[in-house]
Amino acid sequence: MAQAKVFLKNYMEDVVWNFLDDLLSKYPEVCRCETCRYDIVALALNELPPKYVVREQGELYSRIKTLEAQYRIDVYTALARAIMLVKDNPRHANEN
Ligand SMILES: [Zn+2]
Q1: 17-76 confidence digits (pLDDT tens)
Q2: Ligand 1 centroid from CA 85, angstroms
Q3: Is residue 96 in some structural domain?
Q4: What 3-state class would DSSP assign to 1?
Q5: Domain total of the chain
Q6: Residue 55 lies in a domain
């Protein structure tokens, strides 16, 4: 019997990643290296309610759009706060 290709997925993760670049474009002074981007997303996700669903491999991400609309303000607020935290306290030395 073929192994079922289902797994748990936190949709909020995708929503936060989707909004990240959009919001970062408003903060040109913030570092965009991988470390800082992951730090920003981790901080934002810790503030947001997880939205777990069971997904099947290959399933379309149509539900993200619904969540984006529903949580837009919360996600933007959490991301903006996370961006400020990482900007003031990057994990690496400031290169400027
Ligand atoms: Zn950085």
Answers
A1: 999 999 999 999 999 999 999 999 999 999 999 999 887 776 666 677 888 888 999 999
A2: 12
A3: no
A4: coil
A5: 1
A6: yes
